[in-house]
Amino acid sequence: xxxxxxxxxxxxxxxxxxxxxxxxxxxxxxxxxxxxxxxxxxxxxxxxxxxxxxxxxxxxxxxxxxxxxxxxxxxxxxxxxxxxxxxxxxxxxxxxxxxxxxxxxxxxxxxxxxxxxxxxxxxxxxxxxxxxxxxxxxxxxxxxxxxxxxxxxxxxxxxxxxxxxxxxxxxxxxxxxxxxxxxxxxxxxxxxxxxxxxxxxxxxxxxxxxxxxxxxxxxxxxxxxxxxxxxxxxxxxxxxxxxxxxxxxxxxxxxxxxxxxxxxxxxxxxxxxxxxxxxxxxxxxxxxxxxxxxx
Length: 295
What we know:
The protein is α/β, with parallel strands linked by helices. Helix content is 32%, strand content 16%. It has a single domain (20-294), classed as Rossmann fold (3-Layer(aba) Sandwich). The chain has 7 helices and 9 strands. Strands 1-2-3-5-4-6-7-8-9 form a 9-stranded mixed β-sheet, sandwiched between helices. α3 (152-167) packs across α4 (183-194). The longest helix is centred in the last third of the chain and has 23 residues, at 272-294.
């Protein structure tokens, strides 16, 4: 493992929201023109081409290509809620992932990440928690985020529908994980505690919980990647989260990376010299985690 990775350390006290100052999400508007499709095996496919040991997925290093998936409406009765589905080539069956966007909504970089996971062999659905809307500045992003967090029942119901959508596909094994970044990382944790049963929860920064009694509702190992130069969550909050997971008897693979700040992993290309080693190590850990929990 790389020297930049700290030993597993963590814990927190209550639900914490990511501070606006440390929030992430680039300037993308998220507007794309893609065909719509139902929950079937029809539609475009992504060639399976897993990354090598020294490679990161193209999207996070700024090399994401043209979108290879399709728009899907996965929440019954919500035509405005439009997710993005990326499916690997081949008959499968494949494990599946729900990925959860940052505070600015479902933008093209997140769609490109979905394509990258499909290339790794996962049927991947990028969820839409903002009913088709995206933010273009901090004020808009905060408003959308606060609206979603003000109705967590709707958020959990949305992600329950995403899991059901994936499990209904004949090319899915039935094993589904959820992961997210920043706002989406906190939502992934909430969904792991309160949503439909699924087999993996991966968190890249975001709000945390430090109550062992609450965390005891989790029924699977938790993955987490965090930054030492972050304040939302801070290293101390991450340490509290880890301690609470241990107290609750929940297996975890949590790491705080030195010299990087909030939001580093999804945008390695913004500072590759500083973020590259940590980003690669986090990706290797994530691949191993998904392999042991979903395959």
